[in-house]
Design goal:
Elements (H helix, E strand, L loop, with lengths): L1 E4 L3 E4 L6 H20 L15 E2 L3 H9 L3 H8 E4 L2 E4 L22 H5 L5 H15 L16 H33 L5
Antiparallel strand pairs: 1-2, 3-5, 4-5
Length: 189
């Protein structure tokens, strides 16, 4: 069974996600978003070498139009449909990466490309894993290539992810402390 998270991320699981898992996913998403805002794209092209680039259902038509192709021509030449989802045909790099590491369809590129590298399922899963372990007191060594190849962005993210997780966990702890203080406070009769 596949579940949607935040209306765009797909999670393959056979069970309903419990509230504590969803809460931790929210925290991992927050960490990923914080890093995404702090670490700008370096234009290295590493993200454009991913094998599975997913398109939302509305994106093929928009991209086809920008290329002067019919939807059918675009789908036949560039896409494959699997499990009810559109994917760019597997190439490395992406069809639309120019030799100077620029996107040829920048203004209409798939949403996942704009989210890369830190608001993708792959990074959020890694942030989730690190967050759960850090909460348990395990500080895992994080290498510069634990998310994406050895890219400048990944090295920067690796250098700050533990700090970002600590910030989010401290806020969570403070929220729990405030909540427990509110529960202990006398209530008017």
């Amino acid at each position: 069974m596949t579940q949607r998270y935040r209306e765009k991320y797909l999670i393959d699981t056979d069970e309903i996600l419990p509230p504590e898992v969803l809460k931790d996913l929210d925290l991992a998403f927050e960490v990923s978003a914080r890093i995404n805002h702090q670490v700008p794209c370096e234009g290295c092209g590493v993200c454009c070498h991913q094998r599975r680039i997913t398109l939302q259902d509305h994106e093929p038509s928009r991209i086809a139009s920008s290329l002067g192709l019919s939807d059918e021509e675009f789908c036949q030449e560039y896409l494959v449909r699997e499990e009810g989802r559109w994917f760019l045909r597997i190439t490395s790099p992406c069809f639309f990466l120019s030799p100077d590491n620029r996107c040829r369809i920048q203004t209409v590129k798939p949403e996942i490309c704009g989210d890369a590298p830190f608001l993708t399922t792959q990074f959020i899963e890694a942030a989730y894993f690190l967050l759960r372990n850090q909460r348990e007191g395990l500080i895992l060594p994080v290498l510069g290539n634990f998310i994406m190849d050895d890219s400048p962005c990944s090295r920067k993210a690796a250098a700050i992810i533990s700090d970002e997780i600590s910030i989010v966990l401290n806020r969570e702890k403070e929220g729990l402390m405030v909540q427990s203080q509110e529960q202990l406070a006398p209530r008017p009769v």
